[in-house]
Amino acid sequence: MTKRLLFSAAAALIVIAYPLVFSSPFQQRLGALVLLYAIAASAWNIVGGYAGQVSVGHVVFFGCGAYAAMAVYQHFGLPPIAGVPLGIAVSVLIAAVIGVPTLRLSGHYFSMATIAVAELARLITTNVEFLGAAVGLSGPTVPRTVLDLSFTSALPYYYLFLAVLAGTLALTWRMERGRMGYYLRAIKDSERAARSLGAASGRYKLYAFMLSAALTSLAGALYAMMFGFIDPESGLGILISVKMLIMAALGGAGLLFGPLVGAAILVPLEEVSNNLLGGRGAGLTFVLYGAIITLIARFQPGGLLDLVRRRLPRRSVGSGHAA
Amino acid sequence: MSATFVQVIVGGLLLGAVYALFSSGLTLIWGMMNVVNFAHGDFVMLAMYTAFLVWKLLGIGPAGSVPIAALLLATLGVVAYFALVRHVMRGPMIAQILGTFGLALLLRYSVFWGLGANFQSLPDNIVGGTFEVLGIRLQASRLLAGAVALLVTAGLHLLLTRTLLGSRMLAVSEDATAAQLMGIRPDRMQAIAWAIAAGATGIAGALIATFFYVSPTVGETLAIIAFVTVSLGGFGSVPGALVAGLLIGVIESLSAFWIGAVYKDIVVYSLFVAVLWFRPQGLMGKA
Amino acid sequence: MLLEAQNITKAFGSFTAVASASVTVEEGEILGLIGPNGAGKSTFFNCLTGDLPPTSGTVRLMGEDVTRASPEERARLGLARTFQLPQTFERMTVLENVMVGAFLRTPDAFEARERARAIVERVGMRAIAEAPARNLGTPGRKRLEIARALATEPKVLLLDEAMAGLNPAELHRAIELVREIHRSGVTLVIVEHIMEVIHSLARRVIVFHQGREIARGTPDEVTRHSAVIEAYLGKRGARAAKARPA
Predict the structure, then answer these.
(1) pTM above 0.80?
(2) In this complex, do B98 and A249 lie within 8 Å of one another by their Cβ atoms?
(3) Any long-range contacts for A71-78 (C-beta under 8 Å, 24+ apart)?
(4) Which domain holds residue A63?
(5) Which of A56, A188, A293, A300 to mutate to test the interface with B (most CBs of B within 10 A)?
């Protein structure tokens, strides 16, 4: 027990002290990006990992948050953060539109629907002037107050994202330990049995999806605030959907820290490969992602943390045979 | 009824037949082993590139590229089945969906990286030019594509319902264990299904390449069209995919005509959401 | 009456699995459903549990029409069931499996755990409460399913061949458990093949054959009924059985 506590304390210390120790702008920015993607991937994890419903178009929620934040600034002069509730509301609505009909059917319908809706959102946004069409929307170039959350250094973003990540993980942890967590696990193992015990599977999957959408939207808003800009490619393109799911799946889908582990591996990896390969690197990154995803699916769908867990010596009581 | 309007409808039907062809492969796999191939659109893309390369390197048109693409894609289908699908089929949904989705990315961006993002196209008159029939202007390439697609789809349906092979495949899809007890090898039947489904995308892709531009990301759009077609037609139903494909082709064509080409995708994708809400079991499916 | 099925018919295309079956289950009784394989009893059972919607007919649970109600709705109203092929939550422990059932009656995890613990104790699985369900053998899984169903505090419990595959000692234990559950006030409907179980537990039995009810009565009455003997042994077997001394 104390070993775990020590390990957790050490890990927490490292995470908190990182940008102070590795204080170059590049390193701080990298850290902030890892945390940002960890938030998005953790949000995806709620529906993709815990509920087992594989959303392949999750970027639509990311885009909702990003666009809402930028739109309230560009069109109404409000600080982007004021767009967060709007982004969440629209995301949850979209989640309901996708989820209500598909979550009571086999998982394939859900996944197909997420791809279609994400593409639909991208097409619509590219053609709507209010949303910046193909050019996109911008945030404040010069911050007016601290509320604009427009910083030149990555350091404040790092701690802001860390706080949001901590909140996201705390929320996930509570869900995991409560009725919803148990129901989702049961539904994954045997939906039929779960329903016979009173677990309304369609409803719980929908809750997970809506929660996931809301948190993803928040991640999108934070992204837009940090970069000060959003367009259909960066905000609604397939790359973000892929990143969210690969980070969660690589680290460990359905595990609390899986997405963080995945982000900590893949974000620096992408930075390195972009620097090495330059322009052509974009295509290769996707090829790599595709390969990683396929390999995970084929050999270790539980991800890295699951692999680690299996290798650890068993601590549980009575794991032997029973009558 | 104006000639232009009829032209739009006929154009839609011809394209819809091609949609039906590659979608019937998707629905066959889905119905048989409850796997949705998220790389299906990219299979079609590969077939399109095959047709392009066959013309560029060998100077042969669809007469050659269609069989070559069919063979190549059928092989890819079998390989994908044995190397990947067979394993992820039995696992959790996440493994299944990520498996074919990862494959999609792998195929799509390998082509992007290797052959570049530029749009390519075959020459306009590789099959023949445009000609007029009863006041309707038709492209020979589209006419050929539609006709061949219709024939092959119908042939596929007959294969599944009237032949011994077809009934064996049906047996496996109903109950693999029982089929095994009857001496049928589920593994083999499923591999054959993948060969047929992928081969169909090969034919469809090679045909599309004769009148549509070829690019690495074209599979993204085609995949969604396949999903809509299969959902509207009903899970597992080839005749359903045919009817749905034709319908989607016409709707797309009318949308482009009335609202503008930019919006036709929006209409089709919105239609998908509507189908999921109001008739997820599709026109003829088992759901 | 607690559970009532009226004129339940279930057809799959041209094949009629159940033809106009009617069953009334009174509170506090143990009702047995028997019949040879393919007799339609499992299909009928699944119409009662909500797994299959009947082609026609109604199911009422404590007066409420549940014919089209989902399985989770029925659970909420007090109907619980076990599965012929155990559907335990393999990746969860014994205790966690039972907790899933307990969560129907309480949203609080602590409370659910306590209630689950009590049930695990009651069915005699305390020693393996933390074992993953996938480590259990079939008898353990069947017992777990019963425990899990009990946690939903049902009024009526439907057992689908819960005794199949048990050796004599396990069978004895299982019968005792069912008796104890019955004593605590739960009404039971048991689908069974094993006549010993029917004789030990059921007060009333309904016999199915080819989708229809062919006899009902006490276990003794029913096993002596000529139509029932014929259904199980065929016409020649029935004659042969009659020729033998009783």
Answers:
(1) yes
(2) yes
(3) A71/A130, A71/A131, A71/A137, A73/A137, A73/A138, A73/A139, A73/A140, A73/A148, A74/A132, A74/A137, A74/A138, A74/A139, A75/A130
(4) 35-137+151-236
(5) A293
